[in-house]
Design a protein that fits this description.
Blueprint: H1 4-26, E1 29-30, E2 43-60, E3 63-85, E4 91-105, E5 108-111, E6 118-124, E7 127-132, E8 135-136, H2 139-145, H3 159-163, E9 169-170, E10 174-176, H4 179-188, E11 199-210, E12 213-225, E13 240-255, E14 264-278, E15 284-301
Antiparallel strand pairs: 1-9, 2-3, 2-15, 3-4, 4-5, 4-6, 6-7, 7-8, 10-11, 11-12, 12-13, 13-14, 14-15
Length: about 300
Amino acid sequence: MKSRHSRYGSFLIALIAILCLSRIAGADDYAIKMDRPATAGLAYRSTSTGTSEMTRVVKKDGQKVEEVANTMAVTLVSDEKVLEVSTTGKPTKLECVVVKCEQTQDGQTKEVVAPGKKILVQRKGKGMDYTIDNAEAVKDVAQALDMVLHVSDPDKPSEDETFGTAERKKVGDTWKGNVDVVFTTMQKMGLPISKEGLVATMKLADVKTVGGKPLMTLQGVMQAQIEKGGKFPGFPEWLSISSGKMDMSITRVQPVDPAGQSLADVVEMTMAMTAGGKAPDGSAITIDVTMRRKSEDKEEYK
């Protein structure tokens, strides 16, 4: 027969097991923290790929006069270090030592920046300022780097403001992004989207342990119509948008621990629109444009 102490011991072990199971069961919801403040000196290996595709068909008085298709991809592998951050921890100046930087266009691959070169990037107005070994990057190199190397805009709303939620979420849960913030941000970027019908939805897609570290995968989609009658950057003033739409998807892998930096991001955007108007010579011009952009970033922290 078991002693009283033995029975009490068994009871305590069972009680502890129940409590532990309750804690595990209660731990299946997670805080969603998209902003991960950095500090000066943070160092990591970065692998980034940016892809841009564009097709354009131009008609003059109903007759096709131009059809263009361009595809460009830039890959950058580099050792990066944060030099300066904003008051909220957004990196505003980076040092980047190139391991590989290549551009592929129309089936031809060329080197953009040689291995070992040091790139400094910081904001300049609404864009980026790149210097390579203390010399300003030439225009075509800067355009290629702009597809894969950026620092944050400290004046833009945070990702938590835009796509986050204050509520804890379980795997499979979805929530709405802040469409007011999304609309205002897109307007400031010069993208003439319509607020009516604007949708931004996020999802906690997965949580799993990799290498002993719990990681969460966040996914998001955004859809918007292009504002009818709006103007698109780079179009002549006499061209107005008659129809169009934009679709964007986001996938991010980050530690469950809010103190950990994000490990991977994939952002894809497709924009299709039709614009028309009367050219200065009086002819009726119609332009159909489809643009696709994709960026993939992975970081390995030191």
